[in-house]
């Protein structure tokens, strides 16, 4: 099935594509994902299992539980992922992870469709309105601050690994009730690589590209980022080792996942947030590179899950969430550029999905009730035992 036939099928028998409302398109996307996951990955409809909670309760279980959030970043459409013609690009998600997961087909992002601001919204549970290319923190408290304050967790228990240098302020908010040093430390592997590769950056040009949307300026780094001298003291990784591994990795996301694995081995944080960004190469207009980014992200998600199973601190007590920050424009939206951008705010760019797997999660179940991306923070709060007081989202009922 090609992209044109997918759009034709997407009318669901209605008299012409132009007659569909955004709400109808969003529900159509959800239904298409549901049917695809049920027939291809063998998932059952979640409504049949509503009588029991998917998560193990109890204070002891909460103290031991680890949570990892992976943003399937850069935005990917169904045509290239969960539609029949896209399944070849996500074999690990479909064949390995989906059968172990609860899969949510209808996640809507009603906020600004920029990667930093959208990720900030995911971390706060509020649709943030900051400038996507500004070096400012989120306005509202982040999940990392709620987690540390309410549960009295040390700084070493929550971390962020992000590929884009513009994410350096994502770890903590500008909220006076919390203040500096109360959130998560942020590791920016590309920033570290730039600092260590002084005079030899030509060897790493493919890893150091900061943003494919080419903003007018790159924010100055300040506050919260992981410093070069911490490589050895925290990650037990010398600068030479870091450089050697960087030379063997093919993408910024590969480098981020490598650092995340080191962090899991050395610090074993209870709350780890990893942003992926390779898919955003779509802004360059190269469809083949966009597909390559999707396939790499699919593989890296599976690699991280295998790491969870192999690390004693994580095996058996970790819940992992995978979700995009948002999608990309459809091929037929006026003013859009299809896969290349996410500018129109149409249903294809706003309606995504979420996968949850691991400790306490019902395996092989698909849910198609609508939820919003800002629901993630209150859901994690209900799971882990903290109260996200300023979040505008609601706990997902399947996790309550």
User: Helicity level, as a percent range?
Assistant: 25-40%
- Sheet of most strands: 10 strands, mixed
Shape: globular
Provide the low-confidence segments as ranges: 1-17, 48-54
What structural class do helix, strand and pairing data support? alpha/beta
Number of domains: 1
SS element count, helices: 14
CATH class: Alpha Beta
- Mean pLDDT across every amino acid position: 82
Give the distance, in angstroms, between the N- and C-terminal Cα atoms: 39 Å
Regarding quaternary structure, what we see is single chain
Taken in chain order, the helices and strands follow as: HHEHEHEHHEEHHHHHEHEHEEEH
Percent of residues in beta strands? 5-15%
Short description:
With 400 residues, this protein is of the alpha/beta class.
SSE diagram, text form:
Blueprint: H1 3-9, H2 22-40, E1 44-45, H3 59-64, E2 66-71, H4 91-97, E3 101-108, H5 115-124, H6 143-151, E4 158-161, E5 185-187, H7 189-196, H8 205-208, H9 230-235, H10 239-248, H11 252-266, E6 271-275, H12 287-310, E7 318-323, H13 347-350, E8 351-358, E9 365-367, E10 371-372, H14 376-384
Parallel strand pairs: 1-9, 2-6, 2-7, 3-9, 3-10, 4-5, 4-6
Antiparallel strand pairs: 3-8, 7-8
Helix pairs in contact: 4-12, 11-12
How does this structure look, described?
- The chain is of the alpha/beta class and 400 residues long.
- The chain has one domain (3-399): Alkaline Phosphatase, subunit A (3-Layer(aba) Sandwich).
- It contains 14 helices and ten strands.
- Strands 1, 2, 3, 4, 5, 6, 7, 8, 9 and 10 form a ten-stranded mixed beta sheet that branches.
- The two termini are 39 Å apart.
- 52% of the residues are buried.
